């Protein structure tokens, strides 16, 4: 009889345990569904048409190796040096380079993807620039998949930077039209199309201009289009005269967009990269001065173009940077 009673108690306990487990499972399912519903509601509530107070600039190109990250570093640094609170974001997930050019690679703890996935706050991930207190860097992830980037996550970061009082947000785009590049340009107000004076580079840049016209937030919602500008890099008037490079006028004619800057071929660009400093900090550098001229034009100032004429023999002999 005692044995039967024990069996009844065990059976009852087992039934209670199963019931509790089922209840816990149902409760978890309800919580998950509620969380998903909340996330869906948050996504639905995002107003992508709403503009930002900050000016968002994407630095983009159709191919790699044209000086895009170098340009992002110098343009963002130049804006900060002229008193503008600036953030620069590296969108090249998996091939992080901006932090190296800015000389802050050892300070990276959290990155863009960590913030998008809510594994860290934006304030935890932002790195204050060593050279200018007005500049902050948000590095890319070295290990994550590019598909980790999401429109909602990027919008949240840009909105938070806007709320923090940043006046300019520079988006350093990967080359081409992969996910990182599309996310970098989607919210842009201005595009700096970085191009070498070579046929292949110009052709790829023409393709990027088409993407800007069709894949951006402004294109999707019928807003005023992104304003594209041409930044001509590694320009050498002597090679142009020798027929080895397209002229400035030829590139402008092929792309039909306004010229914002001409950066001369200069050994100071490599010197700056090796030092972990943007080119604008290299004293006496033609390229550094050209980048500062570009920044002033972005701010609406009239600045004459220089370094576009053939260099004389005496300057070549002096080895001007």
TrEMBL record:
Region (Disordered): 1-38
Keyword Nucleotide-binding belongs to the record: yes
InterPro entries: AAA_dom (IPR025669), MinD (IPR010223), MinD_FleN (IPR025501), P-loop_NTPase (IPR027417), ParA/MinD_ATPase (IPR050625)
Alphabetic keyword roster: ATP-binding, Cell cycle, Cell division, Nucleotide-binding, Septation
Superkingdom classification of source: Bacteria
Residues the record lists as binding ATP: 63-70
GO biological process, one term: division septum assembly
Single GO cellular component term: cytosol
UniProt-listed Gene3D superfamilies: P-loop containing nucleotide triphosphate hydrolases (3.40.50.300)
Domain AAA positions: 54-204
Keyword Lipoprotein found: no
Family per record: Belongs to the ParA family. MinD subfamily.
Subunit structure: Interacts with MinC and FtsZ.
Name this polypeptide is given: Septum site-determining protein MinD
Top-level taxonomy: Bacteria, Pseudomonadati, Pseudomonadota, Gammaproteobacteria, Aeromonadales
């Amino acid at each position: 009889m005692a044995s039967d009673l024990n069996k009844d108690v065990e059976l009852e306990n087992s039934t209670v345990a199963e019931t509790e487990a089922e209840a816990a499972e149902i409760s978890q399912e309800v919580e998950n569904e509620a969380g998903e519903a909340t996330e869906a509601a948050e996504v639905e509530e995002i107003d992508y048409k709403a503009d930002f107070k900050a000016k968002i600039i994407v630095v983009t190109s159709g191919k790699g190796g044209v000086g895009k990250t170098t340009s992002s570093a110098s343009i963002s640094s130049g804006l900060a040096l002229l008193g503008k609170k600036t953030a620069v974001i590296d969108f090249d997930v998996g091939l992080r380079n901006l932090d190296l050019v800015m000389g802050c690679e050892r300070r990276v703890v959290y990155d863009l993807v960590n913030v998008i996935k809510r594994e860290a706050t934006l304030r935890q991930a932002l790195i204050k620039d060593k050279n200018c207190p007005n500049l902050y860097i948000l590095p890319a992830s070295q290990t994550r998949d590019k598909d980790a980037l999401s429109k909602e996550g990027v919008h949240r970061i840009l909105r938070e930077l806007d709320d923090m009082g940043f006046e300019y947000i520079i988006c350093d785009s990967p080359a081409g039209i992969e996910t990182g590049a599309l996310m970098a340009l989607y919210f842009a107000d201005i595009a700096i199309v970085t191009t070498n004076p070579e046929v292949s580079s110009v052709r790829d840049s023409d393709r990027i201009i088409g993407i800007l016209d069709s894949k951006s937030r402004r294109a999707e919602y019928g807003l005023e289009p992104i304003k594209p500008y041409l930044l001509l890099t590694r320009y050498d008037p002597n090679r142009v005269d020798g027929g080895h490079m397209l002229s400035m006028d030829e590139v402008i004619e092929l792309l039909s967009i306004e010229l914002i800057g001409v950066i001369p071929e200069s050994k100071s660009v490599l010197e700056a990269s090796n030092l972990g400093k943007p080119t604008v900090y290299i004293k006496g550098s033609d390229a550094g001065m050209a980048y500062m001229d570009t920044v002033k034009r972005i701010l609406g100032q009239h600045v004459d173009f220089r370094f576009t004429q053939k260099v004389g023999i005496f300057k070549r002999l002096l080895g001007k940077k």
